[in-house]
Every structure is written in C-alpha cells, then in structure tokens.
# Entry
Amino acid sequence: MAEERKRRKLIPNRTPIPEQDPIKRGSNFKEVSLGYTTEQALEEAERCIRCAKPQCVKGCPVGVQIGDFIGLVQEKDFQGAINKIKETNILPAVCGRVCPQEDQCEKLCVVGKKFEPVAIGRLERFVADWERDHGQKTKPKVAKSTGKTVAIVGSGPAGVTAASDLAQLGHKVTVFEALHEPGGVLLYGIPEFRLPKAIVAEEIAGLTDLGVDIQTNAVVGKLMTVDELMEDFDAVFIGSGAGLPNFMGIDGENLNGVYSANEFLTRTNLMKAYDFPKFDTPITVGDRVAVVGGGNVAMDSVRTALRLGAEEAIIVYRRSDAELPARAEEVHHAHEETIRFELLTSPTKIIGEDGWVKAIECIRMELGEPDDSGRRRPVPIKGSEFQIPVNVVVMSIGTGANPLVPQSTKNLDLNKWGYIVADEETGRTSREGIYAGGDIVTGSATVILAMGAGRKAAGDIHRYLLGEPEPEVETAAEVKNQP
Amino acid sequence: MKSDLTKILETKLIREPDVFYFKLDSPAIARKAKPGQFVIIRLNEQGERIPLSLADINPDEGTISLIVMAVGKTTAEFVELKTGDDISDVCGPLGQPTHIEKLGKVIVSGGGFGVAPLFPIARAFKAAGNEVVCVMGARSSDLLIYEDEMQTVCDRVLVTTDDGSKGTKGVVTVALEEELKKGDTDLVICVGPAIMMKFVAFTTKNYNVKTMVSLNPIMVDGSGMCGACRVSVGGETKFACTDGPEFDGHQVDWDLLMSRQKMYLSEEKESFEAWKARHAHMLETS
# Structure
C-alpha cells in the first residue's frame, strides 16, 4: 500500500482549510477556522507518503504517532485515528487548534522538504472533531489501582496531561485549580475564536471520566501548601502556570484603560465580559486599542479588542515583522482582519486625561546588532516620537513567576527569576516527590510544551511511586526533541 | 456539575436597610484564614468575582463570616440570599495576613462597614498582649455597625458621628487625633473607604505613627495572575492581591487608587439598574 502511495503524484500544496470571512468574523467570537470536511481531510491525508523513517513524530513534545494516525485517516478509520492520537495526547481537539505545528511536527515532515508539509495539525483537529460529532468517545484504559495518590497543582495543559497519564497508570489523582473552572490558560487565556470553550470543557471532562477529582477554588499556597499536600499525597506535581503580568515601567501604565493581556483576556474569556450585562463582569471596550507586544497573546488580545467593538486595533511591536514571536498563522489572520501593525515601534509613555488613557506615545526603532537572543536589537531613532490616540492599552509583554507556590514551599529551588528549577527530562525539583512543569518552570511558553512537561513528569512520578528503575524501552515520554 | 458550593449557615440584617452578616460553611478556608485576609466570591454562573474581607474566622466551627452592603448588582443579589442558600464559588484565603505582634498600643480604625474586618484583627492584637483601642466613625449613630462586637475585643471603643448623634461629633480623625496626642500609639490599622483611609494616614503621618491600610482595588482572579489590582506604594507598582491588601498608608498613592476604583462606574450603574428593573418586575409578578 505504501508503495502505491509513493507512485502517485503528490499534490505540492496542502488542502486549504475553510475559514470564516475575515471581515464578518471581526465582529463575532465564533471560531475562525471551520475545520476540514471529510473529503478535504481525506485529500490532505493522501499527501502523507507514510515514509519509512518519519521525522514528524520527533517534533511532537508528546510523541503522537503521526504517521499511524494519518494512515488510519487514509483508510477512513477515523475512530482508529483518534484512538491512536489519544494513546499519547489527552487534548487532541485543543492541540489540533493551538499547537505551533509549523515549528514542530510539520517542520520536520519529509514531504515538506520539497513541497508544503502535510497539514498534520488540521488532520488532528479533524479526527478529534469527528469523534465529538459522532459521539463514540472511547474511554481510555485505566490500569489497576496502585494505591498511590498524586496531587496536581493547576488544571492547565501541564497539570491536565500529568493527571491523565497518572490516572491511566492506576494512581488516584486530585487536581487543585485556583479559579472557579478547570482548564487554566485554555480557558482564561486563549480566546473562543481560536479555541471554543465547549471543547475545553469536553476534553477536561475526559479527566473526570478517568476518575480524577478536580477541586476548584483551591489556591495552593494559600488554602493549603505544597508541604501540606505532601502529607496527604505520595507525590505532588506543580503546574501552576504563568504569573504576574509584566509592565514596561513607563509613565501612565496605571491609568484607567490600561490592561495586562492576562486581565483583558480573563475578563473576556473566563468571565465572558463580551456578553455584559448578561454576565456581570464588565470590560472597557475602546474605540481605539493599542496592544503592546508581538506574541500569540498579543495577537489574541488585539483580535479580541476588534471583536469587542474597537474601530481600530493596533499592534505596537518594537522589532520587525520577521521577529514577531506569534505564529505566522495568527499574524496572517490578524492582517486579514484589518489589524494595524505599528512595527519597529516602542511605547515611551501613556498619556492620560482625567485618569483615563488618551494616547500612547511611541518612538520608532531601527534594528542594530544582534543581542543575546540572536535577534537584532531594536534601537530607538532619536526624535521620532509620535502619538497614537487610543483609549485602551493592553500590555502583552510576558509574565513573571507566580509567587504563591514558590514562596510557600520549603526548600524548593528557584532560579533568579523566581521560577521553579526542575529537570527538563523528569520534572524533578530539589524536593523529593515534588515535580514541576509548564510555565512555572520555563516562563511563558506554549500549550504543547507544557503538556510535554506534564507527560515527562508523570512518567517519572510513576517510576518514583512504584520504586521502579529507569526504563530502557523508548516510550513517547522519552522522545528527546528539545533543543 | 459543581461540587464545591458553599452553604450559608446564618444571615442577619445588621443595619437597615442593606448591610447584612453572613456566616458560611467553609471549613477548609476557616482552618487557614488569618485576620486581614479576604476571599473572592462568585454568586452564580453569570456572576463576577468580587473580593470581600473576612469579618470573622472560626476554625473550630469551620465557618467564616462576611459583612455585605448592597451597593451594586452583585452585592444586592448577595444580600437577598437566605440561610441554607448556596454560593457558587468562595475562593480563599487570599492576600497576606495582618502582621500580628506585641507592640504596646494599637489603634484599629474603621469607617462604615469597614469596621467589620477590623474585628478579627483587633481580637488578634488583643490576644498578642496589646492595648487595643478602636476608633470608629459613621455619618450618624444609626449607621454604626459592630460597636458591641468591638467592645468585646478592645480595651476602649471611641465612636464619632458626623452629626453628633453618638460619641464625638465629627469624622474619625478627630477622635483619632486625640488618641495620637497621648504619644503612646505604636501602630494604627485602618480599614474603610479609600477617602477615609487617606485622611487617617494623613493624620497619623503628623504624629509619625506607622499606619497600615487595607486597600480595596478592583480584582478579578485575586491570586496573582491578572494585575487588575495594581496600586502604587512608595512610587512602586504593587499587586494588592499578592503583595497586600495591607500596605504602609503613608506611601500609598490614594488618588490613583480612587481613580482606578471608578474604572467601571458606568458599567456598574448599567448592570445595577438593569437588575433593579428585572427585580422590580419579578417582585410584582410573584
């Protein structure tokens, strides 16, 4: 069969994915991407040559058997395909939507050496959605109870993945979530138009099906400490996520109308401020909104501002187009939706009137010598200050470490920024039985990297709990793909 | 689906017409909470998250108490709840506790219904061996709350009313200043409306007495994620939810706090008016 595929002429371009009209979608919160139809999915799956030495899987932080699942799609065995993904990925509908596949699996795709790579993410999403629409959810197998207990701090991508793996291995898992609903950044951070919350809720429900107990409104570090959890549980995994938002330290940042991206997105996504006053939480909808930053969170914020009714929504970023850290797809979508980009531009102060934002003063930048990150350092051009009249400013320039868990846990090694020091391959911290992974270790990163960290830690926690030696067989958790 | 509802064990009208006392069945929070901390509540699925100071903590009983005054939609909805009703979400304890130690003489000063959170703070300072004096004020005697309760945990309770209907005529700073003049005050703790805390801090500055104030900015998550609650203290931006809520009152940028508290004034009004209209209709038809 594989031979036959090789002989067939390969279509150089990937099958386009249907999307909501860019102008229409700028005023609603419905999903931008509509997903492949069955025909489109089959057409795209045919582009996979099922190569003898697949590279794609090496790019997947959770080791999804990509070739195998696409093979099953080719055979129209969609149930088989989703089951194959779920062997290593508890959140396929989420990952199919928000993973930066272009930097991971698709970057290594053999077809991609000559043509456009196979649209692996779109196919993952297709089979995940297919399963949801066809209501044949298969329950993952749960091993016989080991009698061991694990506490997971945080129900974001790292915590959920660790919880799922450990529950399937037969451990009794309890997840502690600070907010009133589980999901972490999937819920409060990523907007509905990129990741519908119903999908998050459904994927989280998969955890409950595994027997995982989720306790909401449970702020670890306040309601109980990690040390107290260690008295009641055999191991603890900390996946408490991103922390306090960074601000630039410029004048006017505390004016009314200045938000952190975290607050702007939390009000909209978690608290549903876009549906005020039906939902109680308000948000200031600016006519003109400037979002400072160039990452995925900045793109989410600026596109959210547009959907909340801004007449003009502007990205202010100090480097150039080439350095934008956001996914190319998100930048492309933003351009399509008429987002204005002020690149090589850096804010110098926020100007207010009667306590409210009136304008943001910026200075133009040019690229100088490369800095520590290898990117060319932006240097201000003297005398190029100018003002952009806006009434809302969203600061999307990263986050620091959340202090609650680090400050309240004894003898837990932290790095100089306050993040928890944990082994990259095992998640082990300086304390025996305490593991950590995700943004609380790495600082702001991606959903899939956090999931990868949760998976690796789960593997090591399992061995720790059962007193097993390091395994020799290569499992998904052992796939080394980090630079 | 929700499994962590919090039951209301007791409600009491403590001041006509709109200030209520609530006792909640919350053993986990009661076990950990300390004076000066707060909780964030969300009444229902459509609700907003609002911070409320703890008016009492009873770890043996497994309860916490809150005083709620109906000033907007959420609080108006809250005070309609009865004994036996459930609250969707109660999250806490949040914030840093008041630093309690034996100092000598501590004045706890409050205004309006801000007196309530001073109750567990005063009790803790008293238990630590301090002389505790309460200076509380209201516009008129019928607006005073918690006077009897404060009597039980303070050495003296000084009352002021703007109209002179009880205690010293004038605002709290009048009575406070008299007490400060004695020169033996080691610490002042103040909880109340921002404007009152501002003037208390101004007053104590003249006497060079350390003053801790409990700031009440708008919050969303309350656990160090969103940054809505940022305040300026000593020229530095702080997050009231994780760094506070108590700060050195002499260092606080009061104008900024008061300006930020007004950020959603028009939305709050809109929401409250819509609720009142719906509510009036409901009462008519029931």
Summary: The helical segments of chain B are 27-32, 73-79, 115-127, 147-153, 172-181, 194-206, 254-261, 265-285.
